[in-house]
Amino acid sequence: MKTCILLLIIGVSTFPIQICSAQTEIKTPIIKDTLYANDTKNVALFFPNPIRQGITGSENFVFTFNREKEQHLGLLQAKPGNDSNLLVISNNGSIFSYIVRYKKQLNKLNYFFALSNSIGNEKPLVSNSIKSVTAKDSIDNRTYYYQKFCSYLLNINQRIGRIKKRNEGIILSVDNIVFDKEELYYVIQIKNTSRLDYDINFLKLSVETRQKGKKKSLQRLYKNPIYTQNTPFKIAANTKIKFVYVVPKFSISNNRRVILELKEQNGERNIDLKISHKYINNPN
After folding, report:
1. pTM, full prediction
2. Taking a C-beta distance cutoff of 8 angstroms, is the pair 90, 45 a contact?
3. Rounded to an integer, what distance in angstroms lies between the CA atom of residue 251 and that of residue 253?
4. Is 125 exposed, middle or buried (0-12, 13-18, 19+ CB in 10 A)?
5. Chain centroid to CA 97: how far?
6. What are the pLDDT digits (tens) for 256-267?
7. Nearest to 145 by CA among 183, 117, 173
8. According to DSSP H, which parts of the chain are helical?
């Protein structure tokens, strides 16, 4: 009889301990690949290779790094808002991708990443059995990269400023200018709020120089795109289209500006959108 009572006491005493252990596991879920930041502290991110490109998917998150001298360090800040994402590309092509979230109280201010944290590499791996790469293969690989990166830019909600102009219900805007490798990516949007379809005659990008002297004149040097994505020929009534122009990188002085010319075919709803040098020289 004493033995039975002792076994019963042991069984009752151990059972609550098991329940508490299970409850503890439920209350502390681990969220992987999420970085936390706020607007009062800098969160330092250290990567195994110097940073070449860093882009956030929302304006309430800001990621800064040294664009003039390659460094392993990047700084992340956030304002209250919805979760977003951070894409970082190192100078060796390694790609790092994380969810970023606002948090008022931060438990961690420094993150150190290893090469094993990379989700991939922008450069395709070449097998040892391949002895040479033809010029055609190189072009195809570059075009493939343009397609992927332009698709990414079209899907994120990132802006460089309010660059827009309208004429008779047609709104031309530059939502974003991004520098990557040796190119500038112009994310352009045309919105037709009128009841009449808009047929595009041409869309040209040029650098305008103001000539000094008594007879002031303007001279334009056109920049031909090396790649375009989603370029429209027509914008139907009450619709909008976003697309990307890729041009070789360049910078301009404060007496120059970029002009985006939109001309309508068989119509006069033409727009010349002027872009200041500060946007060209300080892209995302």
Report:
1. 0.55
2. no
3. 7
4. exposed
5. 11
6. 899 999 999 989
7. 183
8. 2-27, 135-155, 277-281
